[in-house]
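User: Predict the complex with zinc ion.
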Amino acid sequence: MKILDNLYAFIWRNPQVNNCNTYLIKGSKNILIDPGHLHLFDHVRLGLLGLNLIPDQIDLIMITHGHPDHLEAALLFKEPTLITISRSEADFIQEWAGQYGWNSDQGFKADFFLQEGELKIGDQIFQVMEAPGHSPGSVCLYWPEEKALFAGDVIFNQGIGRTDLPGGNGTLLKESIQRLAGLDIEYVLSGHGEVIKGKKAVEDNFRMIEGYWFNYL
Ligand SMILES: [Zn+2]
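Assistant: Here is the predicted structure with zinc ion placed in the model:
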C-alpha cells in the first residue's frame, strides 16, 4: 500500500496469524522497518517485488523492538544490508535468545545501534526516540520531513502495546506515549493494525488512548 511517493506499507491483514506491519522507505537508501516473522516474509517479498525491488536492494533494516514478529526476518539479510536496533533491546534479545529457538550461530547481530537523537540515512533524517514500556529497548522513529511516526508496538490505532511480556512496564509505556503525543504527526505507522492518517485523526487517537488505556497502565 502506497502511503507517500517514498513510503509504502505492507499491512498484515490475517488475524489468525501473528505478524507485524512492515514499512519501506524508498529513496537514495532503501530502508525496511520491521521485516516481520521469518516464515511469513513472503508477504514482504511479494510487496517489494510489486515495487520492482528484491531484498538484496534493501540498504538498511531498522527494528523497532526485538519481538520475533518484528525482528525475525532480519536473519534473512546479509551484507551489504545493514541491520539496526537499540543496544538495550539487542542485550534483551540475547537474554531471551533461547525462547526464540536460536542457537548461538543463528544469533541476531546488529551492525550499529539506534540511539536517542538524530539519525541520517542517505538523504533522509530521522529522530530516534527511546520508547520503553512494551519492551525495554523499544524505539520509535520520527521522520520530520513527512511528519511520520513509526511507532512499533508502543501505540496502535485505538490501542497500546502489551506490557505483560518480559521486560514490559506500564509506567514507562505511559511516559513514552506522552512524549510521542507532543510531536507534530500526520501519519502513525504502527506495528499492527491500520495506519492513522491526518493530524486530527492522530490527535484523536492520542486523546482516546490517554482517556481510556491510561487507566490500565
Ligand atoms: Zn511487540
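The pocket of zinc ion is lined by residues 65, 67, 70, 134, 153 (CB under 6 Å).
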